[in-house]
Amino acid sequence: xxxxxxxxxxxxxxxxxxxxxxxxxxxxxxxxxxxxxxxxxxxxxxxxxxxxxxxxxxxxxxxxxxxxxxxxxxxxxxxxxxxxxxxxxxxxxxxxxxxxxxxxxxxxxxxxxxxxxxxxxxxxxxxxxxxxxxxxxxxxxxxxxxxxxxxxxxxxxxxxxxxxxxxxxxxxxxxxxxxxxxxxxxxxxxxxxxxxxxxxxxxxxxxxxxxxxxxxxxxxxxxxxxxxxxxxxxxxxxxxxxxxxxxxxxxxxxxxxxxxxxxxxxxxxxxxxxxxxxxxxxxxxxxxxxxxxxxxxxxxxxxxxxxxxxxxxxxxxxxxxxxxxxxxxxxxxxxxxxxxxxxxxxxxxxxxxxxxxxxxxxxxxxxxxxxxxxxxxxxxxxxxxxxxxxxxxxxxxxxxxxxxxxxxxxxxxxxxxxxxxxxxxxxxxxxxxxxxxxxxxxxxxxxxx
Length: 449
Prior knowledge:
Blueprint: E1 3-10, H1 14-24, E2 28-34, H2 40-46, E3 51-55, H3 66-78, E4 83-88, H4 93-101, E5 106-109, H5 116-131, H6 157-166, E6 173-176, H7 183-192, E7 201-205, H8 211-219, E8 220-221, E9 233-234, H9 236-239, E10 244-248, H10 255-267, E11 269-270, E12 279-280, E13 284-289, H11 293-299, H12 304-310, E14 313-316, H13 327-342, H14 350-356, H15 364-378, H16 386-389, H17 395-421, H18 426-433, H19 437-446
Helix pairs in contact: 2-3, 13-15, 17-18, 18-19
GO molecular function: ATP binding; sequence-specific DNA binding
Keywords: ATP-binding, Nucleotide-binding, Phosphoprotein, Transcription, Transcription regulation
InterPro entries: AAA+_ATPase, AAA_lid_NorR, CheY-like_superfamily, Homeodomain-like_sf, HTH_Fis, P-loop_NTPase, Sig_transdc_resp-reg_receiver, Sigma_54_int
């Protein structure tokens, strides 16, 4: 199924435009091309563009990426909610990082991998759809700040793939993950990719509902149903009718309330307090928890029949400590957000980024966001130092990083030996290593070979 999005490709190389369009039209509903970035103003103001794939260099002989950063900033001035992915044939990491600070969602090197490019753009679109205020959703949450999270990287590929398959169906979905891993964002994304996208999305924090408020909040009540019922009140289920209801922290629901919720999910009707007439409901159910529901079933604290109802498809969101490849991107994203919010120009040197990777992040993305915000506010210099972060590194994470460095060193040596053995012949070296030519090129770029 194609993602419903309009992608604009901007490059002065006709071959790049054509090949990118052929590739991406398999994954997105509309692909447009542009060979002159000067057309961006007109295109962005007259067309509904969701993402731009933007080259970093245009003038002949220029390869410093400054033009791309200029046009990136221009795109963000015209439409701050347009997702932008930078592309370059030169792999200028410093300029790529600068583009992230200026609002790019990510960057990719040319020649790109045919699988990686559409995945990267889809990840960038999640940022766009999760933060664009024009999406007509009604939620009951005040935790809007987490809607600026970025979800990208190898560890998220399977999550995104499962969501894209499951979202268009009406299957009940259970999101599993630690606090701060972005369960609400994924619930919203499921709604946006579903057939119910034009109806209401309602977020209910079950953990905050007391036993006495549960029925009145979820099912509503009529005037006079109890002492303080001064007027008729619509409940969350009725409010979400034809749309999606997101039942967050379902593991916190007491047993006596679990049975009431189960009846609603089984019968698809609700009864307002003070009324005996059943109200049919047609809603998509998405639930989330940070608890182990199977263990709770075994201990008798969670109903097995309710778990069966909500667990047609389960999706586990990995914690940030297992998403090492994303920490730098997330940190720069939040840095840009808070630099703008507090009207400052702070930066994250490489040593600070490396220090961030040594921390275990028990609070996950939410904690990283707060750490960066605090550092932006309190750091005395323009460069944020490790001391400004006020976090203590984890020995476990440090060990994992050291292991990764050892693996990378081994891989680099294998590539060098294969190239030497085959006298620099890329095709033969790639074949010997069991890689495609493009995959070998990417690794050579990574190790500066």
